[in-house]
């Protein structure tokens, strides 16, 4: 029991990625504070949730996910809408997660699967397999082994957290968790949430880096890496895959921040500063707040650039010139 250690090898490729990621994170943290960019943080969080659910076949679009989170009525399957609400609640509490606690894992599974599965917040009692159509690709360990396997995994994490780099630890956990398949449903979502939680404990900026959207872009390779590790009996290939994806996405973050700095004119920043989140405003109300008289100036310099940058949305997007049109800050 106490000597359990998941099998993996720390390769040169892994060490190179760890070094590269650490350097990029250092540069991002030093040059640009995501804390001062609430809309960028919010957009990245929405991307994380949309991608993680899309991997599990949730069909809602990014816009629909944004609307559900914004409290709007969305036409879609109730289960899919509930998945978004649950995931948003879980991700909003990311900084409160103790990723080294089984109790927290069960609590957050309860949040992630609320109203959706019978065994919400509890390990599975039935047998589970992973299927591709009718073909069983992988049979998870029997249910009666799950509590012991999870206990071993968390004991190993707690024992290794000061000796194994968090980037490697998070990837090993992700793979082992998927292998054990501890819950009857929601395993993929929980594995990705927990991966982010482990990294955010190391560097809080990971709360707002949408690793999930990178995985979704390379979904086939993600599942291939897992399947290869099942065959090899070691998580080495999966660690390399995950680190390569994290390394890639970190190249996008400075570009996102620079683009936002560049594109966010003084006009747009002023408009955003007079708006509260989730409150609909008429154009007249906004012009009054900005002390503007010309509708043309307001539209050209303030409103249209903010809509184009996805920082504000219309309440009636299919009728832009509707008399009932209002604008909401995202």
Short description:
This protein is 60% helix and 5% strand. It has helices at residues 12-31, 38-55, 62-69, 78-92, 102-112, 146-160, 166-180, 187-202, 211-217, 219-232, 236-263, 266-273, 283-290, 295-308, and strands at residues 129-132, 135-139, 312-314, 327-329.
Task: Write up this protein.
- This protein is mainly alpha-helical and 330 residues long.
- It folds into 2 domains: 12-261, Fic-like fold; 264-329.
- Helix content is 60%, strand content 5%.
- The chain has 14 helices and 4 strands.
- The chain has helices at 12-31, 38-55, 62-69, 78-92, 102-112, 146-160, 166-180, 187-202, 211-217, 219-232, 236-263, 266-273, 283-290, 295-308; strands at 129-132, 135-139, 312-314, 327-329.
- A two-stranded antiparallel ribbon has the order 1-2. A two-stranded antiparallel sheet has the order 3-4.
- Strand 1 (129-132) and strand 2 form a beta hairpin.
- It starts with 11 loop residues before the first helix and ends with a strand.
Q: What is the typical, i.e. mean, pLDDT?
A: 91
Taken in chain order, the helices and strands follow as: HHHHHEEHHHHHHHHHEE
Report strand order across the widest sheet.
1-2
| CATH-assigned homologous superfamily of the largest domain | Fido-like domain
Number of H/I helices: 14
Radius of gyration equals 22 Å
Tell me, what's the shape?
Answer: globular
- Which second-level CATH architecture of the largest domain applies? Orthogonal Bundle
């Amino acid at each position: 029991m106490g000597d359990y250690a998941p099998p993996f090898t720390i390769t040169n490729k892994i060490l190179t990625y760890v070094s590269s990621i650490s350097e990029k994170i250092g540069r991002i943290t030093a040059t640009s504070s995501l804390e001062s960019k609430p809309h960028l943080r919010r957009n990245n969080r929405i991307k994380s949730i949309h991608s993680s659910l899309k991997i599990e076949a949730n069909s809602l679009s990014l816009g629909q996910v944004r609307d559900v989170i914004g409290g709007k009525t969305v036409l879609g399957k109730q289960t899919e809408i509930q998945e978004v609400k649950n995931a948003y609640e879980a991700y909003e509490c990311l900084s409160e997660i103790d990723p080294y606690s089984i109790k927290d894992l069960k609590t957050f599974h309860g949040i992630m699967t609320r109203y959706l599965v019978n065994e919400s917040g509890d390990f599975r009692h039935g047998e589970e397999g992973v299927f591709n159509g009718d073909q069983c690709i992988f049979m998870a360990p029997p249910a009666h082994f799950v509590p012991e396997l999870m206990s071993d995994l968390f004991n190993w994490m707690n024992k290794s957290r000061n000796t194994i780099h968090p980037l490697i630890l998070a990837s090993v956990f992700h793979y082992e968790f998927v292998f054990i398949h501890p819950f009857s449903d929601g395993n993929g979502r929980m594995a990705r949430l927990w991966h982010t939680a482990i990294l955010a404990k190391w560097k809080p900026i990971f709360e707002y880096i949408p690793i999930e959207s990178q995985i979704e872009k390379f979904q086939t390779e993600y599942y291939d890496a897992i399947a290869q590790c099942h065959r090899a009996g070691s998580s080495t290939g999966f660690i390399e895959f995950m680190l390569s994806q994290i390394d890639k996405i970190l190249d996008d973050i400075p570009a996102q921040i620079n683009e936002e700095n560049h594109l966010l004119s003084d006009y747009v920043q002023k408009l955003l500063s007079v708006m509260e989140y989730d409150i609909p405003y008429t154009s007249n109300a906004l012009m009054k707040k900005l002390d503007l008289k010309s509708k043309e100036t307001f539209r050209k310099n303030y409103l249209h650039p903010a809509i184009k940058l996805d920082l504000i949305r219309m309440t009636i997007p299919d009728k832009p010139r509707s008399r009932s049109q209002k604008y909401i800050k995202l």
